[in-house]
Amino acid sequence: MKKSLFIAFLAVVSVCVNAKDKWEYQSNFSEGRACVKDSKGKWGYIDESGKVISPCQWRSVRYYQEGLGCVMNAEEKYGYVDLDGNMVIPCQFFYGDWFSEGLAAVAIIADYSIKYGFIDKTGKIVIPCQWENAYSFEKGVAKVQVKLDDGTRVWKKIDKTGKYVE
After folding, report:
1. DSSP state of 87
2. What values do phi and psi take at 19, rounded to 5?
3. Predicted pLDDT of residue 15
4. With 50 as the cut, is the pLDDT of residue 24 above it?
5. For residues 6 and 9, what is the distance between their CA atoms, to the nearest angstrom?
6. What is the model's pTM?
7. Nearest to 134 by CA among 148, 152, 149, 147
8. How confident is the prediction for the chain on average, in pLDDT?
9. What percent of the chain is modeled with pLDDT above 70?
10. Which CATH architecture has domain 26-93?
């Protein structure tokens, strides 16, 4: 009896150690998904049961927000996957942030410089990429960095139409 309990104990410990050792890194869960990194330095997502949702194929990933996870491919372009790991917005952006209030800040290369704007959940640019930097929307406004004519940069706030607000 003691021998069978000891063997069962070892089996449980072995499973726990193997599950823990499977990932080089595992984040906390967001929307039922966690970011994981394998021993080769590739990133993916798992669900709360440990099932792989998006295989470790990405150079980088961000937490899920509003049902979408932001991923970076080998060419360092950002796109988005849904909760099932399906690519819903192709990797095409120089930078991609997580979704907040239905929009995500993204950057493209335009006229040899990086310009930030915002996309909706279909990947459509709904606020044109025109700023030096941008933060996510919070309570209906987002901070954007504007380059003035004299070359200085200032932060301003915009609404969801891209208009400046006080």
Report:
1. E
2. -65, -45
3. 34
4. yes
5. 5
6. 0.84
7. 147
8. 90
9. 87
10. Beta Barrel (2.40)
Is residue 26 within 8 Å of residue 36, measured between CB atoms?
yes
Longest dimension (CA), the chain: 82
Q: Which two tokens stand for residue 110?
A: 């335009």
Instruction: Give whole-number Cα distances, 156 to 113, 141, 153, in Å.
Output: 20, 10, 10
Determine contact, residues 95/110, Cβ cutoff 8 Å. Answer: no
Q: For the segment 81-98, what is each residue's pLDDT rounded down to a tens digit?
A: 999 999 999 999 999 999
Q: Dump strand ranges (E) for 8-151.
A: 25-30, 33-37, 43-47, 52-58, 60-65, 68-72, 78-82, 87-93, 95-96, 104-110, 113-119, 125-131, 133-134, 142-147
Residue 110: predicted pLDDT: 87
Q: Is 108 exposed, middle or buried (0-12, 13-18, 19+ CB in 10 A)?
A: middle
Rounded to the nearest 5 percent, the helix, strand and coil shares of the chain are 10, 55, 35
- In which residue are the tokens 């060419």 written? 75
The domain locations on the chain are 26-93, 96-166
Sequence-separated (6 or more) residues with CB below 8 Å from residue 123: 79, 80, 88, 89, 90, 92
